[in-house]
Amino acid sequence: MKTIEVDGIKVRIQIWDTAGQERYQTITKQYYRRAQGIFLVYDISSERSYQHIMKWVSDVDEYAPEGVQKILIGNKADEEQKRQVGREQGRQLAKEYGMDFYETSACTNLNIKESFTRLTELVLQAHRKELDGLRTRASNELALAELEEEEGKPEGPASSSKTCWC
Ligand SMILES: Nc1nc2c(ncn2[C@@H]2O[C@H](COP(=O)(O)OP(=O)(O)OP(=O)(O)O)[C@@H](O)[C@H]2O)c(=O)[nH]1
Ligand SMILES: [Mg+2]
Question: Pocket of ligand 1, candidates 21, 73, 78, 109: which has the most ligand atoms within 8 Å of its Cβ, to mutate?
Answer without folding.
Answer: 78
